[in-house]
Design goal:
Largest sheet: 16 strands, mixed
Organism: Agrococcus baldri
Oligomer: single chain
Strand content: 35-45%
Low-confidence stretches: 1-5, 393-400
GO biological process, one term: iron-sulfur cluster assembly
Family: Belongs to the iron-sulfur cluster assembly SufBD family.
Distance between the termini: 50 Å
Helix content: 10-25%
Protein name: Fe-S cluster assembly protein SufD
Number of domains: 1
Shape: globular
């Protein structure tokens, strides 16, 4: 008996389709046309709010939709002229991974270049204020933050106002430098913001990277960090609070490339209100030469009301068996009944007890900033979000 081949004719000579499995395999290009327009079926867009992000998919000239507050940096000698796409060190680290970052690269000819001088300790944070000038104004930007060898300092990017803003952020931490980079998204509710952060950390260097997102209609901040040097260290922290109708997303990538590198990833989010949505995808890659690596990633979400949804996907890829340790974890749920019971048993009213639980949950990230003035402002922002929560009604089930 002879078997009959029922394969359709148009598939006989077709190449097998193998979907992209890991973050490190994603295609890169400086040409937006190589990516096409996202449909929501692509691996890096399937959980995104593609409809509301659509204005950022258009490759066209844009207005000056962002006002920069950088006078204090100029006075401190921290700004370096960066004219044209070929101005070093632009492009030393950054390569676009999606159409939005490719358009931002193409349409932003001149970069904002912040440099911490070699061997110097900056006692005061370098603060860049980026203010959107209108929800109907599309802007593209490229920022380079460079910490020279032996330098120590903190750079804060504070976003506010309204805009349609695509941003590329290139972070270079030279050998022996120690940098803290904090990106605060405090937009108005009509803002659409997509940012790609790409960092490299040199030998014996350290980078603390923090993403804090409260405001905005759709906020998608995707950071990646490459621990390239021997004994390079990196920490990636995130804090978000999504309200009704708000979409907050981070796709985080940490690549252990050098020997004896150490990495820690911790993102926490709270959600309240109908349609509140958070997306966190965490990828850790331990390369085949990254012996002695110690790495851990964790995402935790607290769902405060019905109608909110949190997606959390941790991934870990290990290419060598000689490591100190590696792990990942994810948890999404409602209030801890035991914590509430304990507080109420001490005479604290239920609403106040819920407020204290949320603050305790989120303040772990705030306290890692290390700058008291910024920590105080973020603590106030959390309190304001909670006041908008109308009693913090308990959720009947965890987000999806």
């Amino acid at each position: 008996m002879t078997a009959t081949d029922t394969t359709p004719a148009h598939l006989v000579d077709a190449e097998p389709f193998v979907p992209i499995q890991t973050r490190s395999e994603r295609p890169t290009s400086y040409d937006p046309a190589d990516f096409g327009t996202p449909t929501g079926r692509e691996v890096n867009w399937k959980l995104s709010d593609v409809k509301r992000l659509a204005p950022l998919f258009v490759d066209e000239e844009t207005e000056a939709g962002i006002e920069l507050g950088i006078d204090a940096l100029a006075e401190r000698g921290l700004l370096v002229e960066s004219t044209g796409h070929d101005a070093a060190p632009r492009g030393e680290v950054f390569v676009p991974e999606d159409v939005v970052s490719a358009i931002a690269w193409k349409r932003c000819e001149d970069a904002l270049h912040i440099r911490l001088p070699e061997g110097q300790v900056q006692d005061e944070p370098a603060i860049v204020r980026l203010t959107g000038t209108g929800a109907d104004r599309h802007a593209n930007g490229h920022i380079v933050v460079e910490a020279m060898p032996g330098s120590v300092g903190t750079v804060v990017l504070h976003h506010s106002g309204s805009a349609q803003y695509a941003q590329n952020l290139e972070i270079i931490v030279r050998d022996g430098a120690r940098l803290t980079l904090i990106s605060v998204q405090d937009w108005q509710d009509d803002t659409v913001h997509a940012a790609a952060h790409q960092a490299v950390v040199g030998e014996g260097a350290y980078l603390k990277h923090m993403v804090v997102s409260f405001g905005g209609g759709v906020v998608r901040v995707n950071p990646s960090m490459r621990l390239a040097g021997h004994r390079a260290e990196g920490e990636m922290f995130g804090l978000s609070f999504a309200d009704s109708g708000q979409h907050i997303e981070s796709q985080v990538f940490m690549f252990h490339e050098g020997v004896e590198t150490r990495g820690d990833v911790l993102y926490k989010g709270a959600l309240q209100g109908t349609g509140a949505r958070s997306v966190w995808i965490g990828d850790v890659l331990i390369g085949n030469a990254a012996t002695g690596t110690d790495s851990y990633e964790k995402n935790q979400n607290l769902v405060l009301t019905d109608g909110a949804r949190a997606d959390s996907i941790p991934n870990l890829e290990i290419q060598t068996g000689d490591i100190a340790g590696a792990g990942h974890a994810s948890a999404t749920g409602r209030f801890d009944d035991e914590q509430l019971f304990y507080l109420q048993s001490r005479g604290i009213e239920e609403e106040e007890a819920r407020r204290l639980v949320v603050i305790g949950f989120l303040m772990e990230i705030v306290q890692k900033i290390g700058v008291p003035e910024i920590e105080a402002r973020l603590a106030d922002a959390i309190e304001e979000e909670l006041r908008r929560g109308a009693g913090l009604a308990p959720a009947s089930k965890a987000g999806a």
